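To illustrate the input format used throughout this study, we show a single complete record. The first block contains the structure-token representation of the backbone; no residue identities are included at this stage. The design step must infer an amino acid for every position from geometry alone.
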């Protein structure tokens, strides 16, 4: 009996440490977890904080659970944490400050949940390199939500309900290589949409120059605003196929000088400006399933030959 009381007492103290000693409002209630670096811990109540059993944790994986809100301090102060994966767990809200003081963090993957807003203060100033928010219900993204993420390379937001693009995103996030916004509801690309994206940057980890690839296919884009590409000169891929584009004006191209690969299939384009072909000659082979005029078809064929 004494041993049982001691065991229960240790468990009770552990719960207190998780939920109150680090001043977090509980986000987890008997939640089943898979932890790299703490295999003996099978479930969590309260929050993830640097108590003895968790300081070596490198992976947090939560699948098919019920975690409605990640509250401030939900995952905090873990010096060895590399990956956070929370999938299909009914997350409806991410409070500012839910992830803090995680010096080795590389990946956050929050797929197949139900949150509709990305707030300021959730991801800012984290060392995260890959951020995957696919298959949620995201409609609203704060203008500063993706600012000040110095190592951010891959941002995946496909299959949400995003209806707009903001040129205010990505301030002081200089290493972006992939922006995936496929399968959303974006209707236009505004002026200076990529003004805060370098387009090409040097990656010391691989000793190479890395180009940015932008995936905007399978949206509802009808037009590109004048100066849509002001503020950027060179980048890698621009995928705009399977949208509703009726025109691409020369004015929309702004300061753009070179794109390695542009795809425009399955739109409503009748022609494209010569400047676009100069920027990306490969585009001529990615114009199928558009109602091109006969004049433009002849012109394209002459350029291909």
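Output of the design step:
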């Amino acid at each position: 009996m004494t041993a049982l009381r001691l065991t229960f007492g240790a468990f009770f103290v552990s719960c207190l440490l998780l939920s109150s000693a680090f001043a977090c409002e509980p986000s987890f209630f008997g939640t089943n977890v898979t932890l790299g670096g703490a295999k003996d811990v099978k479930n969590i109540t309260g929050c993830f904080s640097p108590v003895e059993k968790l300081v070596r944790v490198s992976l947090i994986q939560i699948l098919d659970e019920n975690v409605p809100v990640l509250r401030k301090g939900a995952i905090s102060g873990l010096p060895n944490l590399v990956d956070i994966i929370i999938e299909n767990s009914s997350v409806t809200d991410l409070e500012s400050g839910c992830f803090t003081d995680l010096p080795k963090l590389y990946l956050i993957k929050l797929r197949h949940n139900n949150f509709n807003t990305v707030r300021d203060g959730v991801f800012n100033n984290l060392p995260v390199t890959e951020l995957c928010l696919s298959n949620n219900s995201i409609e609203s993204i704060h203008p500063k939500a993706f600012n000040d993420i110095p190592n951010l390379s891959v941002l995946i937001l496909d299959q949400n309900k995003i209806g707009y693009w903001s040129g205010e995103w990505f301030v002081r996030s200089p290493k972006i290589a992939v922006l995936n916004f496929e399968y959303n509801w974006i209707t236009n690309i505004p002026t200076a949409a990529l003004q805060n994206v370098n387009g090409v940057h040097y990656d010391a980890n691989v000793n190479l120059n890395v180009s940015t690839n932008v995936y905007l296919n399978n949206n509802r884009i009808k037009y590109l605003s004048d100066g849509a590409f002001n503020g950027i000169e060179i980048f890698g891929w621009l995928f705009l196929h399977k949208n509703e584009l009726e025109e691409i004006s020369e004015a929309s191209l702004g300061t753009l000088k070179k794109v390695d690969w542009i795809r425009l299939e399955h739109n409503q384009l009748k022609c494209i400006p010569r400047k676009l072909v100069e920027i990306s000659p490969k585009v001529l082979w990615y114009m199928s399933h558009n109602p091109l005029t006969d004049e433009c078809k002849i012109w394209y064929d002459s350029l291909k030959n």
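Structural context for interpreting the output: Residues 148 and 299 are 45 Å apart (CA to CA). Confidence is low (pLDDT under 50) at residues 1-21.
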